[in-house]
Amino acid sequence: MIAHLTGILISSEPTQALVEVNGVGYQVHIPISTFDRLPPCGNTLTILTHLVVREDAHLLYGFMSDEERQIFRLLIQAVSGIGPRIALSILSAMPPASLSAAVCQGDITSLTRIPGLGKKTAERIVVELKDKMEKLQSAGHEKESTAMGTEAQILDDAVAALISLGYKPPEAQKRIQAAKALLGESPALDQLIKAGLKS
Predict the structure, then answer these.
(1) The domain 66-145 is classified under which CATH number: 2.40.160.60, 2.40.40.10, 1.10.10.10, 1.10.150.20?
(2) Fewer CB within 10 A of the end CB, N or C, for the chain?
């Protein structure tokens, strides 16, 4: 499973992005919410991914937040009749927090406003995902309260990203520490990587 890509954004459209990692270009299908958060072309980014293997193709789907990726996985794995294309359309039409709230509250009306989503499918989403979405929301609140504990992991991930781009480990460590000093408390992974490449 390819869990994430760190590389250079070559091109992007509202539905897909091309990311070059060590000379290999990966086509990644994305929701509009991810497209809106992509850096300008030519910049380095880290994008979370989900790999779908079909008989005729291996397809990568990308997200700028783990919450989006988790909801995408729930939609395609737990709700019959929803494949990756419809799941991306749902995430493009409704932010994760709004989608989660609509499902937890059984708000069929809001869900049927999503283009291509009928009443029966919306009802299936609520039935299949309500408990799972509530658990996801609870986990999100717990994550917020323990966010400081993840900072070391983010620093490690940023160092690993620079190493994957060809930097020697000591140089990567030095650049990320300098980037953290520049950015202050709790920097995001993509910010650390960008600043590390410039330092």
Answers:
(1) 1.10.150.20
(2) N
Rounded Cα distance between 175 and 160, Å, is 12
Record the pTM.
Answer: 0.69
Contact indicator for 76, 34 with CB cutoff of 8 Å: no
Q: If you ran DSSP here, which 8-state letter would residue 120 be given? A: H
Q: What are the contacts of 118-126 at 24+ separation with CB within 8 A?
A: 121/79, 121/81, 121/82, 124/79, 124/80, 124/81, 125/75, 125/79, 125/82
Domains of the chain by residue range: 4-63, 66-145, 148-190
Q: What is the pLDDT along the chain (199 residues), one digit of tens a residue?
A: 789 999 999 999 999 999 999 999 999 999 998 998 999 999 999 999 999 998 899 999 999 999 999 999 999 999 998 999 999 999 999 888 889 989 999 999 999 998 888 999 999 999 999 988 888 777 655 454 444 446 777 888 888 888 888 888 888 888 988 888 888 777 788 888 888 888 7
Contact 7, 44 (CB under 8 A): yes
Position 79, amino acid: V
3-state helix, strand, coil in the chain (%, to 5): 55, 20, 25
